[in-house]
Amino acid sequence: MEKSMSYRDKKVMSMGTVCEMTGLSERRIRYYEERKLIFPERTSTGFRKYSFSDIEKLMDIAEKVEEGVQTDEIRRDYRKKETDAELKKKMIRGQLNSHFQRSGFK
């Protein structure tokens, strides 16, 4: 059974809506996609779809770029955060498994 997806992560908004909400141009958003900072879904006809999480990420990216941070550095930062989050999940899972094994649960 598939986990239910948070409303924040559902890709339902068009490029036009995202441009209105963020103030970013289509060109700028496509550039961030080319730089592998944002990953919209594509409809069967090729239109991009974005989520609320994507909008928050776009705003964060635009703010960092405005501060002078390079897109390569932003991408490295995001990858590190994702790796750290995965590592933390694995550690917690391991601690829980260890606890339950010591408690006699299997």
From TrEMBL:
Say yes or no: keyword DNA-binding present: yes
Q: Does the keyword Transcription regulation apply?
A: yes
The record's listing under Pfam families reads: MerR_1
Q: Which UniProt keywords apply?
A: DNA-binding, Repressor, Transcription, Transcription regulation
Report the superkingdom from the record.
Answer: Bacteria
Q: Which PROSITE patterns match?
A: HTH_MERR_2
> What SUPFAM superfamilies does this protein's entry cite?
Putative DNA-binding domain (SSF46955)
Limits of the HTH merR-type domain: 12-80
Per its record, how is this protein called by name? MerR family transcriptional regulator
Look up and give the organism this protein is from.
Metabacillus halosaccharovorans
